[in-house]
């Protein structure tokens, strides 16, 4: 074989190797970009989804002052506590530190997993529990202290649900937005950190003019059609 032919053969081989490694690199880059997009979609969807519902209840964490106001409002209380829409678990964890057996119900699985991790890290995992659940599909009958940081559009429906489920001994604390028909026994804090405290005994005896009290499942149907 002539020197020229040998050179041409080697050059051809190296071009083939180069083009193979380039196409492999292309595959790796496509895989990485595709994988990152899928991961981003999986993480972002639960945070964006509430904005697409009819009643938008987004993740807005309670401020430190708000958490303090909640705990002060329940200072003389003990037993079970639930935070409806528990976000990153800050109210549940703070309540557990104050001796409550505290639970959170939250639609966003990432926030629930993060809350469980935080509770474990802060050493209160034995007195806390976090559930990936739709608030309209569970009963809060077993809780004697209820906390809700909701939005005005959902408060009238939640009133009916809690009226039918909670025992007369329960207390309810609403953060930032009050319930429309109940009369609070106490209001604490100011501005966005305001909390309204309600006594179940008084709101259970309150009659809604023209409103029909609904069971949990009926409430769930109504709420679903609204969300
Ligand atoms: C305003 S944030 C309050 C978070 C937390 N309670 C706090 O004060 O820091 C409302 C939370 O409710 C959750 N959420 C929205 N719709 C829900 C539903 N149908 N069931 C359960 N949680 C829901 C949102 O993901 C969000 O984390």
UniProtKB/TrEMBL annotation:
Protein's cellular compartments: Mitochondrion membrane
Against Gene3D superfamilies, the record matches this protein to: Vaccinia Virus protein VP39
What does the record give under GO molecular function?
A: protein-lysine N-methyltransferase activity
Against InterPro entries, the record matches this protein to: FAM173A/B (IPR026170), SAM-dependent_MTases_sf (IPR029063)
Keyword list (alphabetical) reads: Membrane, Methyltransferase, Mitochondrion, S-adenosyl-L-methionine, Transferase, Transmembrane, Transmembrane helix
- One GO CC term, this protein: mitochondrial membrane
Q: Which residues cross the membrane?
A: 25-49
Topology relative to the membrane, per the entry?
Answer: Single-pass membrane protein
Signal sequence extent? none
Keyword Transmembrane helix in the entry? The reply is yes
User: Which BP terms does GO give this entry?
Assistant: methylation; positive regulation of sensory perception of pain; regulation of mitochondrial ATP synthesis coupled proton transport
Could you confirm whether the keyword Acetylation appears in this record?
Answer: no
Name the family the entry cites.
Belongs to the ANT/ATPSC lysine N-methyltransferase family.
Q: What is this protein called?
A: ATP synthase subunit C lysine N-methyltransferase
Protein's organism: Hippocampus comes (Tiger tail seahorse)
What does the organism's lineage look like at the top? Eukaryota, Metazoa, Chordata, Craniata, Vertebrata
